[in-house]
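[Discussion] Sanity-checking designs against the backbone

I'm trying to build intuition for which residues belong where. Below is a structure token string of 546 positions. I'd appreciate it if someone posts a full sequence so I can compare it with mine line by line.
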């Protein structure tokens, strides 16, 4: 008996569950001959469909069934894209393993996820062998080897391409409940063990549709369309590469997978494959733009969305000088990535403020800024509070961690841990992370704003600002600055540079750091973001040293 008020359904009608496999079917219809490129390999979308079927069939022959978890440790390759589809389409769970974690953390995430099988790149075999005695659930291993030169280690089921060749190209994936868990990956915070973030088929499909709509709505910039050539520069183990491989496949774009990132390789692919759309964290774009080859390479027509951490005005200006259509997206692991996308209006193409703002809510996203009591603050562009969100695709909790899940979803809104302001049109501007904001003498000092202003100095390459304890003021900002090669940057120069912004009223004079450290490098996280946690730990070590 049907529930009251539901629409009647003809028994013969196809219910069309929102499954990841539907994305692949959409691409097959319109883009069967479009290319997917990795190294010397070039596959059409028709071949992708066949290879996904073969991989699904082969995994099934290894005993992988619905509900099992399959981990992948690989660079950004065609194999990863195939696993993005084949594993969830079996009703299994894709676990994207972060090979940049410590050995202890990596083993913890594999065990905690209950991974039954792992597909591992030959380059990561030493890492796997180090943790293999500690793996409690993994009992099937498949080797991924670009050169097919590595010997199959003992206990492995075989090599990936041989496994794919053995699979059935006509394998049919059955439909199942769209609320089935499709993926899991792990996010590392400032304390405690990594936390598992998981998403259903329905959540991923709805997310892809919403972000596609957001990126297709631009009038004069950032518009993604069927003629684009897509290349990720975000690790595919991190938040499904922000969901963009699924979007690119749905739209039937030519896709270019770079493998391991080096500036030379990325620039060569942009030039040779005519890449027009990418995404990355600021430090990766900085790495590319700092390479001497960018001085002679034409980067006009390359659209790049920046996420993971704030886009500084200095980096945005450098990108614009190279002709890059740069803009931002904002989200976090728990939000399946973007809940906002930047939008540059007509006449604002060169506005750094427009390009560095977090942007406007993605379709179906609700955002609020709230105070400590969850009271919503006005959307006046100045009232700052914690950003909280609702959307159909936000993770419903942390895997097997009810206490952290309840905290994440306190009061029925997802808490981002970010501080921001919303204006009357819904544009979000982030001012800091709650853990990074500096409270000095009763005044809140934004580390993001200071980093942005410092980055605008022409001799600055990178910068990070953190709070340090102060006996009189409670905290004071401390700036770490990397100068550009060939410059003789001085701390006094940075101080004078900030004084000019204080004079114009953009910041208070009190916000100017007394301590400015010139350093050669800044520590990065496993996904390439500035690691302020390590900077604070280093400063704490200085204070406790005898």
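Best answer:
Here's mine. Compare freely.
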């Amino acid at each position: 008996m049907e529930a009251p008020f539901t629409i009647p359904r003809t028994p013969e009608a196809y219910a069309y569950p929102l499954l990841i496999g539907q994305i692949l079917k959409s691409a097959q219809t319109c883009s069967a001959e479009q290319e997917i490129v990795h190294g010397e390999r070039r596959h059409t979308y028709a071949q992708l469909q066949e290879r996904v079927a073969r991989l699904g069939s082969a995994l099934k022959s290894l005993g992988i069934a619905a509900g099992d978890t399959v981990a992948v440790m690989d660079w950004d390759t065609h194999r990863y894209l195939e696993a993005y589809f084949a594993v969830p389409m079996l009703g299994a769970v894709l676990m994207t393993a972060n090979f940049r974690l410590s050995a202890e953390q990596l083993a913890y995430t594999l065990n905690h996820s209950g991974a039954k099988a792992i597909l591992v790149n030959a380059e990561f075999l030493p890492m796997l062998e180090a943790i293999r005695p500690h793996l409690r659930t993994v009992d099937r291993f498949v080797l991924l080897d670009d050169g097919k030169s590595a010997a199959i280690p003992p206990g492995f089921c075989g090599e990936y391409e041989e496994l794919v060749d053995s699979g059935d190209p006509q394998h049919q994936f059955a439909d199942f409940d769209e609320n089935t868990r499709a993926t899991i990956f792990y996010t590392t915070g400032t304390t405690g063990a990594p936390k598992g973030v998981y998403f259903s088929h329905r959540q991923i499909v709805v997310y892809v549709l919403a972000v596609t709509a957001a990126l297709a709505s631009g009038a004069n910039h950032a518009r993604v369309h069927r003629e684009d050539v897509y290349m990720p520069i975000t690790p595919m183990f991190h938040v499904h590469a922000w969901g963009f491989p699924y979007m690119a496949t749905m739209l039937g774009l030519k896709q270019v997978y770079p493998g391991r990132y080096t500036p030379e390789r990325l620039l060569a692919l942009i030039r040779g494959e005519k890449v027009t759309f990418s995404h990355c964290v600021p430090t990766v774009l900085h790495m590319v733009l700092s390479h001497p080859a960018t001085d002679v390479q034409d980067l006009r027509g390359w659209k790049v969305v920046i996420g993971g951490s704030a886009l500084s005005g200095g980096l945005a200006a450098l990108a614009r000088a190279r002709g890059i259509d740069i803009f931002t997206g904002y989200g976090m692991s728990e939000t399946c990535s973007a809940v906002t996308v930047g939008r540059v209006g007509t006449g604002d193409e060169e506005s750094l403020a427009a390009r560095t703002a977090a942007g406007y809510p993605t379709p179906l996203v609700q955002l609020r800024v709230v105070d400590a009591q969850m009271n919503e603050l006005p959307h006046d562009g100045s009232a700052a509070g914690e950003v909280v969100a609702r959307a159909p695709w936000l993770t419903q909790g942390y895997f097997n961690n009810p206490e952290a899940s309840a905290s994440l979803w306190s009061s029925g809104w997802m808490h981002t841990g970010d501080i921001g302001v919303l204006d009357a049109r819904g544009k979000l501007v982030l001012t800091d992370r709650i853990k990074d904001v500096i409270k000095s003498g009763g005044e809140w000092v934004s580390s993001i704003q200071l980093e942005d202003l410092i980055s605008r100095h022409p001799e600055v390459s990178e910068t990070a600002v953190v709070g340090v304890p102060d006996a009189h003021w409670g905290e004071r900002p401390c700036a770490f600055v990397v100068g550009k090669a060939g410059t003789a940057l001085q701390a006094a120069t940075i101080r004078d540079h900030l004084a000019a912004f204080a004079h114009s009223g953009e910041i208070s004079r009190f916000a100017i750091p007394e301590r400015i450290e010139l350093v050669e490098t800044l520590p990065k996280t496993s996904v390439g973001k500035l690691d302020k946690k390590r900077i604070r730990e280093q400063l704490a070590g200085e204070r406790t040293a005898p």
